[in-house]
Amino acid sequence: MTRLVELEESGPRKLDPSDIDDENGDVAVCQCGLSESFPFCDGSHRRTRDEADDETYVYEDGERKVVERVVTADERPEE
Ligand code: FES
After folding, report:
1. Using a 6 Å CB cutoff, which residues line ligand 1?
2. I need a surface site. Which of 1, 27, 41, 53 has the fewest CB within 10 A?
3. Is residue 8 part of a domain?
4. Is position 7 within any domain?
5. How high does pLDDT run on average in the chain?
6. Which stretches does the entry tag as region Disordered (predicted)?
7. How many distinct structural domains can be found in the chain?
């Protein structure tokens, strides 16, 4: 099975102080979808810094590719 997830965030979500783990310290949750330690941020979001607002990207096997935007059935123009 393959799942395509469209995300626009380019940085982590930091939790409030009550969520901080006593052993691990600061916890940041990945919102970009690229972390190897998902759901925790591992800094991989830095790869998104130069993304263009009007492009759609696929990250696969360490490479980034620009793709045509996926059009869902409800966005498809009527024929
Ligand atoms: S937000 Fe995804 S790796 Fe940091």
Report:
1. 11-12, 30-32, 34-35, 41-45
2. 1
3. no
4. no
5. 83
6. 1-22
7. 1
